[in-house]
Amino acid sequence: MAVERLAENPILTPKDVPPSRPDFEVVGAFNPAAVLYGDEVLLLLRVAERPRDKKPDEQAAPILNPDSGQIEYFRVKNDDPNITDIPDSRSFYYEGKMFLTSISHLRLARSRDGIHFKVDPKPAVFPKESYETFGLEDPRITPIAGICYISYKVVSQNGICTGLLTTKDFKRYERHGIIFCPENIDVVLFPDKIGGKYWALTRPVPRYLGPRGIWIASSPDALHWGRHQPLVLPRPELFDGGKTGGGCVPIRTPQGWLEIYHGSDKEDRYSLAAALLDLENPTRVLARSSKPLMEPAADYELRGFYGNVVFACGHVEKDGLLWIYYGAADEYTACARMTLEDIFATFE
Description:
This protein is mainly β. The chain contains two helices and 26 strands. Strands 19, 20, 21, 22 and 23 form a five-stranded antiparallel beta sheet that branches. It has a four-stranded antiparallel beta sheet with strand order 1-26-25-24. It is globular and about 55 Å long.
């Protein structure tokens, strides 16, 4: 299959993003939502930051105090006996509780050609609410009837949830609170109502029983969701046998709703694949990729803050191609272009 990675990749790195404050350093600019807005491609980046003065022999978790609006640091030495686990660079466990080593916000980047982006100097949306104390992550933008609906992960000491923002101008954002409770993530809204209802792909995370895969739900108002059911689940022994999750906003085609999703294997290697859903009944899967659309291969996908990852949250259709903007190694933003025909060729 002809997947073209841009020669300019990675198109955005942490060095391209000014930190939100002097005592922070940016460690990730990745997993962007994407939308065509006027004559520009807009990316809504997840920007991960950590304290600049973090020492090698310690763990430091930046946490929002929602009462004061200030970021406070929880610091512990690596040899502290109360540290129960440090699974990777993204988190640590203290007295059995998880803490994140960075805090993320959402930041706009703008481009006329879809390749060269200028990053806004300040955050578009910064942690503010009690359900956002550990940060905002992995947005998806779905335009519906002149309003852009932004689903995003909200993280706090109470769990990982999905929140909803709306905007009409990418200047003012309205928070609508939590729309899916812990732990239901990778939420992607469809760009049209179907049967008079809003629809969304979701990813509940069962702890004891059941696979981690894509589900689907519907809503009368995009705020209250129900009729949950499994949809695109992991396939044992394949590239997506570990877990699956919604990626880009579904694309309406004559053949059905085309969904670019991520799938990981048992070694937590993330690839991209596609599924085709019925136009009138999106709970019905018509086809699914028998092989990945993309898998980690480039150096910037294999090595980074958390390597072996390609993770897409956004796309635009431009110049007869699908431009997929994706996070690489939980650190960079990259872009790959492909045709719909190439994607359909992977269906079994």
